[in-house]
Amino acid sequence: MELCYPRITRIFLILSIFGVLRAHARTWDLAVTIGREVNFFSSNGTLTGRLLNPSAVSLSAIAYDPESHEMYLGDIRNRNTSIFSKNLQEETKIWSPLLPNVNFTNIIGMVYDPVTSSLFYIDSILSSILRLRLTSNKSTRDFSESSSPPEVIIDLADKSPRSITLDLCTRTLYWTNSNRSSPSIESSDLSGTSRKTIINSNLYDPLAVAVDHTSGKLYWLDDEEGITYKVERSNLDGTQRELLAHGKHQQPVHLTIDEEFIYWTDWVHSAIWRLSKTPSPGREPEEWKSFLETNRDADPRSLVARDNLGHVDCVVVERMRESKSEANSEVYEGLITSTEDLGEDKKVEIVCLNGGHRQGNRCSCQKGYDGVQCETSVCHNFCVRGECEVHEGIPRCRCSSRFRGRRCEQDVCVGFCLNGGECEIQGGEPVCRCQDATGVRCQERIGGDGICGLLCTTGLQEFGDLDRIICRCLERNVTENSQCSMYIYGVQNKTLVIILSVIITVLTTSIIVLSYFVNKLRRRPRIKKRFVVSKNGITPLTSRPQLPGNQCEIMIEDCCNMNICETPCFEPNRRNPEPICNKKEEKNSLLLDMEGNNSC
C-alpha cells in the first residue's frame, strides 16, 4: 500500500507536531552554555541574546520548558548549587538555586519532561540517573522548600553515563555509557524499569545522544580512538543504523537537533558544528559558530534546540511513523524512512559518503573507502605506529623511525641490544650503547684488561662499574694508542673495593691493639724485692737499719731486667761461661751472687 500526501499536508504535519505555526516570531532557536553564561541564536546563526549567571562557575547541562519558558542549568563545579532555574520572560537577571550541591554532585546531562514536570539528570559522581520532581508554583521551586528530594531511578555503578535524552511520545529515556570496556546506548521507561541495550557494537566512546521526534530516529556522537569521530543515527530500537559523518581533529561534547540540522559542540575549535539530517554525497560538516574570539576563557558545552522540545503531538507522530512502516520508502521532506525494497518500480534511497556514487541499491565507493555507504576508510585503525596513506586503494603505513612492519607493529629495539645495552635510533637504524661489552649488539663481554683499555683510549672517567681508581693508564704515545694495565686484576666493583678497604682497616687496627696487650702480658714478672748490702759486697743485710756510709739499698728488679746487673753499689761476681738454662735460673743465680754463693 502506497500513501501519498500533498506537499502542503506533509509540511503541516511536521510543523503541527511542535506547534511552530505561531502568529509571532520566536526570539531564539538554539541555546548553548559557555562558561557562566548562555548564548541564544536564531536558526541563521545570529546572536540574539546573552544571559550571565553570576553565581555559576561552569555550566555543564541545559534543559528548557517551552510552555512555562523556564530554563534549567546544571553547574559542574559550583560548591553551593548544582541546578539553577530562571524564567526567560521575567526581566530579572537573577538565577534561582534549584538544587544545592550535596556530596559533590556532578551534573553532566539533563532533560525536562513537561508531562510530569520533572528533571532527569546524570550525576557522574554517583554514576546514576536521578529524577527531580518540580512543584507547580514557580515561586516555590527553591529546593529548600520542596518536599520531593531527588530520587535515583537507575544505578549505573558499572557504567560511565554521559548524556541523556527523552522520547516524549513513547515515554522512554535514552542515555550513553562511555565505559571503554563496554560502551553502549541504553534505554528504559521513566521509572527506571524495562531497561534495554539499544546499541553495543562498533562503539568506542559515545558522548551524546538525542531523539528526533519527527523521524523517530536516534542520533549520537562517538569519539573514536585517536583523532576521529562519528555522527550516527538509527531507529529508536537500534535497527537501520546509518553513518552520517566520519571526521577528524574534533573533540565533540554535546548534541542536539532541529527540523533540518544536527548541531554539536567541539572543544578543539571552540565552535558549534552542524550537518544536514539528509546529507548529500561528499558534503562535510560546517563550522556554524566559533567562540575563539568572543569567549576565550571557556568552551561551548551543552546545547538545546527549541524545535525538538515542547508538548509534541504524539498522535501526528504516531501516524507518521505508521505511514513509514506501511510505505517502506516514503520520504517526507527529504527524510529517508526505510531502505527495504518495494519492488522493481521502487528505488532504495541510500546516501553514499566520501565521494561514493549510488549504483542501484548499492554504493560504488572511491578508492580508499569501504562499507555499505562508503563510510569507512581503509586506513581506519590500520597503522599501529605510523601514518596511513592510500595508494591505488591499498593502505600503506609510513612508520616512525623506531617501528617496522606492514602496519608499523614491530619495535626494532625490542631484543636488539644484548648484555644490558641500551638501544637508540640513529639515522633510522638501531644503535646500541654497550656497558661491559662490545659489538654491534653488545654481544661480546669485555674482560678487565679490555675495559681498562677502553677507559684509557676514550678518556672516560668511568665505564660501567669500573673507574680510573682501578686502572692505571700510561702516557699517550703519538703513534700508538695509550696502553693500560690493571692496577688490581679483574673487574672490581667500587662498592666492593670500599667494603674491603674498611674491613682491612678494621683488621689492621685490631691487630695493633691486640699486639700491644699481648706484649704487655708477656713481659717478665717484676720482682719487687729490696736488699740492703754493704758497699764492699761482702755481707747482705737481712734487716733494714739506718744506712751507714758503707751500705746501700738495691732493688732486684732493676738488675733482673738487664742481662748484666750494673748498680752504683753492687758488682756481682762473673757468671760461669756455661749457658744458663732459662731466665728463672738466671734470676736465681743473680740472687745467689748477691748472697755470696754461685750456683751457675
From TrEMBL:
It holds the Pfam family Ldl_recept_b. This is Protein cueball. The gene is cue_0. Belongs to the cueball family. LDL-receptor class B repeats lie at residues 171-215, 216-261. Residues 409-443 form the EGF-like domain. Its main location: membrane. The chain crosses the membrane at residues 496-518. It comes from Fopius arisanus. One of its GO terms (biological process) is spermatogenesis. It is found in: Cell membrane. GO terms for molecular function: Wnt receptor activity; Wnt-protein binding. It comes from the Eukaryota. Keywords: Cell membrane, Differentiation, Disulfide bond, EGF-like domain, Glycoprotein, Membrane, Oogenesis, Repeat, Signal, Spermatogenesis, Transmembrane, Transmembrane helix. Disulfide bonds join C413-C423. Signal peptide: none annotated.
